[in-house]
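User: Hi! I have a protein structure encoded as tokens and I'd like to know what sequence might fold into it. I'm fairly new to this, so please keep things simple.
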């Protein structure tokens, strides 16, 4: 989902949903909205403006910063 935000720039929830629908089937708009709001709670995304009832979101992380925890943490099995 973050890759979609990086690619589109600051998109609306509907724009993200439409792009995801082309790739992975047909997720509902509320499902995409829930995922984006959870990313916002984890401080990986943020709302940049609101137009009517539509929120425009942007990433709060760069692609490198998003992958850094995966690289820095050792895998224990």
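Assistant: Happy to help. Inverse folding works backwards from shape to sequence: for each of the 77 positions I chose a residue that suits the local structure. Here it is:
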């Amino acid at each position: 989902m973050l890759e979609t935000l990086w690619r589109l720039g600051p998109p609306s929830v509907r724009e993200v949903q439409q792009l995801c629908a082309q790739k992975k089937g047909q997720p509902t708009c509320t499902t995409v909205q829930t995922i984006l709001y959870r990313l916002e709670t984890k401080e990986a995304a943020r709302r940049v403006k609101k137009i009517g009832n539509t929120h425009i979101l942007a990433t709060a992380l760069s692609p490198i910063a998003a992958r850094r925890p995966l690289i820095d943490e050792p895998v224990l099995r």
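A useful reference point when you look it over: The domain at 2-67 is CATH 1.10.10.10 (Arc Repressor Mutant, subunit A). Feel free to ask if any position seems puzzling.
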